[in-house]
Design brief:
Number of strands: 7
Number of domains: 1
Number of helices: 10
Helix content: 55-70%
Strand order of the largest sheet: 3-2-1-4-5-6-7
Distance between the termini: 52 Å
Order of helices and strands: EHEHEHEHEHEHHHEHH
CATH class: Alpha Beta
Radius of gyration: 19 Å
Largest sheet: 7 strands, parallel
Structural class: alpha/beta
CATH topology: Rossmann fold
CATH superfamily: NAD(P)-binding Rossmann-like Domain
Length: 282
């Protein structure tokens, strides 16, 4: 690649941070999107002088446009070689009782925010014949109970990634989807903290109907974080998507992701529901 300038959203921690540092070590010029400059300064201490933290809120049009202007002023006619859409959150709880504002916020960040960033940066990507890498999840292929909003957002991300990949193919702009399983990142602790706050705010009926299953959520999230694979595995997939002569459309990362996706495709729906319900619902 002659142009090695990329933007990564959600680079404060976890997968985004790991991708930013990995690409920085490979000699990429990385614009690392963060919500707080203190996170950017901490990231910069671990990176070379090429990495530049940049404030961006994917749910704020003004913030996105300001970021576009700053990056365009820096890269000029060279444009961008890559955009890694990684920013995301997890909203958990029983769909029957989850307030709609929480579900809407899930989609604002994980779906509309990703699309807004792509729309805003496509002129720079077209200029640099760049590539788009969207960080999805195994939950974009199989929806489990009590993470319905998150799974729905990832299903949506997969769908519009497929559509826009076809739309942009005439300009040589590739779109790849990364589908990790459990990754050892701070998102699990954030999920537990946010999930507990949401669950505690639900009406008494929610606890009456789903109490036993809801009590398992923090433990399940903690276990997923403990047994997750290192985020460096995702960074390798992202690097391949950005640099390979013919990048894959989908990258499945982690044995549990392979198992979950195979399980979703091969097991009949009723049997699958019964197996999942035995361990997660009752």
């Amino acid at each position: 690649m002659t142009n090695k300038t990329v933007l990564i959203t959600g680079a404060s921690t976890g997968i985004g941070k790991c991708c930013a540092l990995h690409l920085d070590k490979l000699g990429f010029r990385v614009f690392a999107g963060v919500r707080k400059m203190v996170d950017g300064e901490a990231l910069q201490q671990e990176a070379s002088g090429l990495l530049q933290p940049i404030l961006i809120d994917v749910t704020d049009t003004a913030s996105i446009n300001q970021t576009v202007g700053m990056i365009e002023a820096s890269v000029g006619q060279a444009g961008l070689a890559g955009l890694v859409n990684n920013a995301g959150i997890v909203v958990a709880g029983p769909l029957e009782f989850l307030p709609l504002e929480h579900i809407r916020h899930q989609f604002e960040v994980n779906v509309f925010g990703q699309l807004a960033v792509m729309q805003a940066f496509l002129p720079l990507l077209r200029r640099g014949t760049g590539r788009i890498v969207n960080i999805s999840s195994v939950s974009g292929r199989i929806a489990l109970p009590f993470i319905g909003p998150y799974a729905a957002s990832k299903f949506a991300l997969e769908a519009f990634s497929d559509s826009i990949r076809l739309e942009l193919s005439q300009w040589g702009i590739t779109v790849s989807i990364i589908e990790p399983g459990a990754i050892k990142t701070p998102i699990w602790e954030k999920t537990i903290k946010t999930g507990s706050k949401i669950l505690n705010s639900l009406p008494s009926k929610a606890h009456e109907f789903y109490g036993s299953a809801m009590k398992k959520l923090p433990e399940s999230s903690h276990q997923s974080g403990e047994r997750g694979i290192p985020p460096e595995k995702v960074a390798l997939a992202v690097t391949h998507a950005l640099t390979a002569p013919t990048p894959k459309v989908r990258y499945i990362v982690g044995k549990d992701a392979y198992f979950g996706i195979t399980f979703a495709w091969l097991i009949p729906y009723r049997l699958r529901d019964w197996l999942i319900s035995r361990t997660m619902v009752k």
